[in-house]
Amino acid sequence: MDLNSMILQISFIVMYSEMMAYGFIGQEERKCKYLRVDKLLKIRCYDMNLKEVPPYLKTSVEVLDLSFNRIKKLKRSSFQPYKNIKFLLLYENMIQSVEPGSFSYLTSLQEIDLSNNALMTIPLEIFQLPALRNLYVDSNDLMYLPSDLEALERPIQAPLEYLNIADCGLQDLPDLGILPKLWHINASLNPLMDLSIERFALMCNLKSVDLTRSELTPCQCQQVNNHLRVVEVKTKFVPVCLETLDGSKCPLPYNYTINSMDFIACKNSVKLAEKRSMWLFVTGCAGGILSVLLIMWLCIHRRRKKNVKKLRASALQRRSLVISPKNAINKRDHQSNYNNHNNDLLSCDTA
Cβ neighbours of residue 15 under 8 Å, at least 6 residues apart? Predict the structure, then answer.
């Protein structure tokens, strides 16, 4: 092999590597992996230098992993073919903007991870997804979120249970309205210097909270700890107050939390949801019992109908013996002779 050929081969390898690094190689040549996870179809397009959501994937995908790519923008058509997605992983990309309607097709979405991107706010349509339970938006500089939430329609439709907003530069917890199903919130690594204790009244079902490495004032720290202890929330990841302030300097938070109208409304929502789920359970059980009884009745009715058909068929098979005309004449002659003979015997006796 001459020197020119070696140089050409080395140059091709270098160019191919550069094209792969910058995403110029077609995604079709670098195929995503298909696998099954808990009976769900998962497509793993992890670390492929993708610059957009690939449009050629199987449309029945339920778990889509697009993490560690170079996606900067989500378009309205990005997820239009993939309406069955339940879990969407978009962390460690470069997402800066999201077109309105990008997530509107994902009505089955239960979890989305948008952490470690370049977002400056959370698209408000995410909070209206009817099945969304877990939301991860940590490690984004959400500087425009407080102002954008002024346009949020409350109560939100998403039944949020887990919310991660850690390291987002927030001065206060976001006002998402009543969150009756939220049991955990991670707001660590945020300043929270303007924390409103009223926000906790909207989370009446809270079980654990993470506020580590936040910059709470002494009064905020005391109020938060007092409230969380009363509602029996784990305070393992809540800052420990270094001093105790009297009521004149730091009033008790209960008028703003457990005794507030928001907290009562939140509790009523929880009770209503429990009653609704109980009613659905009872209705489902009653429907199941009625279905079983109906099936049993149909089986019995069908069996009786089959038995009646069998009886009719056997009755048709048992036909009466038909006497031929010749046998009928002979029988009449024999009967006539028998009668004449009896008459002769009676005549002799009379004589």
Answer: none
